[in-house]
Amino acid sequence: GPPTPQPTRLHPLRTMALAAGFDAPPAPWKESSAAPGLFRPGGLPRVPTPQSGSRGAITLRGSTDTVVEFFGYAVSSILFQRGVYPEDHFVQVSKYGLKILVANEANLQKFIGEVLQQVQGWMMQSQVKRFVLVITSQATCQTLERWTFNVQVSDGGATASGAAIPRTQADVVHVQKEIRCIIRQIISSVTVLPLLDEPCSFDLLVYTDKVADVPEAWDESDPKYIVGASQEVKFSSFCTKVHHVDGSVAYKYTDLGA
């Protein structure tokens, strides 16, 4: 396949390691022992339900809301499916024609919500290139899985001028079907991924342009690549006519027969 592009800038929230297995994560949150730093606690408003501006068109804002909302459901699905948090940290909702488990524990919601709100702001400037969820071992801090979602902006004029791009109801339905397919692939991927039989933490990383304004609570980070052998499972993609998003998961691979 094509070579992996190098990030021009990589910004995670200044790292908060939310440990698996907590009945309720501590409040206020503490600094990560692996990467201590300042963290601004507190929740931000939830990302709104996507609004396109009009039924027959989609704008940069409408597309951004669609993509960021997908990221939120994807993160919750991954954390649940991989057992990073207990089942009672999640609640079932209906979305994309599916039953999806989403985070409902207050501190976990706040953490994800703050990241998504910042991602939304960067995407409104067309500055997000990649969104990554990293699962790491609490014992070794080694990366075990890297869930990557690449974001490409179309060449249309909507991104630069804020103009709306025409779309039909069939386009809307098609995007929902594409997103549903990716969520199903995330859920089914647990059948091929190695069992995570140790306490794990996760980080959310965002690749941005160099010119992106970075809030004080964020800082540059290493990409937390998997060390040693790994394998990758690719997901399908979806396109809003403004953004194209595709995904994959890379996981640490140990050949037991070797």
Please give the structural blueprint.
Blueprint: E1 10-12, E2 53-54, E3 57-58, H1 60-81, E4 90-95, E5 98-103, H2 106-123, E6 128-137, E7 143-153, H3 158-161, E8 165-166, H4 169-188, E9 200-208, E10 230-239, E11 243-252
Antiparallel strand pairs: 1-9, 2-3, 3-8, 4-5, 6-7, 6-9, 7-11, 10-11
Overall mean pLDDT stands at 79
Strand order of the largest sheet: 1-9-6-7-11-10
Order of helices and strands: EEEHEEHEEHEHEEE
Structural class by sheet pairing and helices: alpha+beta
Shape: globular
Approximate helicity band: 10-25%
Largest sheet: 6 strands, antiparallel
Radius of gyration of CA atoms, rounded to a whole number: 18 Å
Number of helices: 4
Unreliable parts: 1-9, 12-54
**Overall number of strands:** 11
Strand content: 25-35%
- N- to C-terminal distance: 26 Å
Task: Based on the model shown, name its key terms.
258 residues; globular; six-stranded antiparallel beta sheet; alpha+beta; three-stranded antiparallel beta sheet
Explain what the structure shows.
The chain has 258 residues and is of the alpha+beta class. Helix content is 25%, strand content 28%. The protein has 4 helices and 11 strands; from the N terminus they run βββαββαββαβαβββ. The strands form 3 sheets. The chain has a 6-stranded antiparallel sheet, covered by helices on one side. Strand 2 and strand 3 form a beta hairpin. The N terminus is likely disordered.
